[in-house]
Amino acid sequence: MVSLVSVSAEPLSASGRSSEKLSLPSLQYKMKTDPEGYDTELHLIRSQFYSALELFQQQAALNFSSITGVGADPTVAKELGDRAMFLAHVTPFYPKQLAEFPSDLAAFLKSSARTLPSGLRFHVTQALILLVNRKIIDIKDTLALFMELQTLDDRNLRKLAFSHVVHSIRRMNKSHKNEAKNRALQNVLFALLQQEDEAKAKRSLITLSELHRRKVWFDDRTANAICTACFHSSSRIFIAVLSFLLDYEKIENDDEDADDLSSEDEMAKNPQVVINKETAYKAHHKGTTASKKKKKAKLQRAIRSMKRKQRLSSETSNNSYYSPLYHLKDSQGFVEKLFSRLQTCNERFEVKMMMLKVIARTVGLHRLILLNFYPFLQRYVQPHQKDITNLLAAAVQACHDMVPPDAVEPLFKQIVNQFVHDHSRPEAIAVGLNVIREICLRMPLLMNEDLLQDLVLYKKSHEKAVSAAARSLITLFREICPSLLVKKDRGRPVDPKAKPKAYGEISVLSNVPDIELLEHEDEVDGSEDDESGDEAASISSYDGIGDSDDEKSQYTTDGGSEAEDIVDEEDDENDSINEDESDDADEEENDDEDNVETEELDAEEDDDYEEVSDSSKPDDGAGDIGNEDPKAKTRKRKLSDFEGQLIAADTSLRALKRLAEAKTGGSSSDLADGILSDEHFQKIKKLKAKKEARTALAQQGFKIPSSDQLSFKRVDPSKLEAHVRLKLNKEERLALVKAGREDRGQYQARTAIKQNKTGGLSNRQKEHKKFMPFAAKKAKAQRSRQEKNKKKLRSGKQFRGKKAWKQ
């Protein structure tokens, strides 16, 4: 006889070959090792499970239960849970005998889940999860049951069911994605999300959000289902969806993250970051310590800017941007519906701000047109408004080049009038100028010349935050439209004639982007990206001056054109001085001095060019040229032979055009068929990376991002505020000084260090220990006595030397 002892030490008799007592875990192990030898025990425990199940149901029907479950006989619940777990473990080894057990267990849990005791319900749920993990039951048949179990008021059970659903779907999509099975599971969750029952909709939303955050379900169907939940009747579901969407829009500081990683690791991860070896070598090994520090900083800035570009491009091209707002199918309809709910809702101000952020982010991301949104924002634009920086960041986010400037102009003017005036606080002025800069970065057509010149005057403010914001506005318009600035504020723009595109103007590509890099491949590979590259190019051009008459005329025309530029600059300066008579006298004097210096430098360069062109002439006229002053000759040629220089310039330009056409024709012969292979595209990618590296190293000012980059860029409200480092007091300065001296040793005088040194004697100490003959020592002592006597005689008197008449 085999007696089975349960976990509660109650023996269960059964017929068998031996009379030993076994517990359920030991019997379970033996049944797994020898399934055929324990058929009798299996039928016994199976019958015990069904009898306990029937007894429990009868007790529930007779209402022998308390509020927490069956209270009359707790041993029934204990036996039922133990045998359910036992049969779940051995079901894979007895598929025919226990074929109906999984469905019966699921039906029992579904019908009696709310009335079961918490312990029994937890054990039965564990047994069902074990059957799902062994793939005896499909997750599609039990998903609705597990979602219903999450709505019960049982924290442990809710956590268990939620983790099981998430991990099961993750395992199912780990190796490959079964779209048919995923679609069936998504339909179950989507149906629960659309129900009016708040508990079921909330659990479905939490499950979908977790799967989307874990990158398991990041397709369009899931994203649209989550976004559609914004219009649920329950305010809790609505707020939960808004917070989830805004969590994806958290702004990460890319600059700090880029500094944390080592450059070698980043170069290995991003092979497209191409920096010339010569530039890196110069930054670490050539020049003084200060120059090397500047070169290293410049190199790191270039690497960071290139990494940022590549990260942004990878987000757009590799579908790594998983925000649900990015996958909206009907983004315009979503925004209009959400905005109509915003206008009519009676929620608190924080909820309205969340709705504003979601609307603004969607409008900026998909470049939508929602004309009523800007007048709605206009009513909240006040310096004393709560969370005004978040509101202004939303206003900036909703601006893009597809919106008509007339629709945003009232909002833009109100920001200027409310924030930027003389009676406003410095913090408000700084925030207003930063917001104006960000809006003009996206819609430069809003700015006019008079308004810009008034805003630029804040660069003279004594408040550092205000002056920095005004200078950033000047830097922006130096790139996008320098003509709106006064000449002294233009600096040295890259393109002096740059103007923003008109509304609706687009640039249409007529060829493969960056295909011209293949045509000029040698120039891209051979060009140097350091500062001395231009000088080397100019020196190499000077070496071949005497090769042809065209080159000789080219250099003479360069001198003439520079003279013209100087005259034009003088005229422009006179005009600008007449226009800006209201400026300070000190600034005018500084500008005049700078202009005079530039004119002198340009004149010297012109003289050099003319002298070089004179020396390249034939020898037969050398005697005539030598009789005259070379400077007078060059000035005479500038004024007298100006028409000849223009004709020579025309001929040289024609020759250069013919040379360029021949070169492009020869290089494009390889691509005559118009078909590009994968090797061509890979080469274009590498050449583009090299070109970006060279421009990043050579760039000094602000670079304007494209409209697509601005649509993906998230506006950080904290960056709109004024962050000015306050002046430290004496205690804080001393603390910084002491903190910098922690690794430094104790201060000692130089003589004390020399006395305590262990590396040997100095040369002077060695001289004292040299062995000299007695005569040498005597002579040395005599010389020292004579010198001491001379010093005594001279002490207290001014030694003037011998008089001239006494010699």
UniProtKB/TrEMBL annotation:
List where in the cell it is found: Nucleus, Nucleolus
Q: Where is the SDA1 C-terminal domain?
A: 759-804
* Region described as Disordered: 522-641, 774-807
| UniProt domain SDA1 N-terminal: residue ranges | 86-461
> Where are stretches of biased composition, namely Acidic residues?
522-534, 561-613
Q: Which residues cross the membrane?
A: none
The UniProt keywords, alphabetically, are:
Nucleus, Protein transport, Ribosome biogenesis, Transport
Which spans does this entry mark as compositional bias, Low complexity?
535-545
Query: What main location does UniProt list?
Result: nucleus
Q: Tell me one GO biological process term.
A: protein transport
* Keyword Transport assigned: yes
Note the Pfam families from the entry.
Answer: SDA1_C (PF21638), SDA1_HEAT (PF08158)
Record-level GO cellular component terms: nucleolus
Instruction: Name the job this protein performs.
Output: Required for 60S pre-ribosomal subunits export to the cytoplasm.
Q: What is this protein called?
A: Protein SDA1
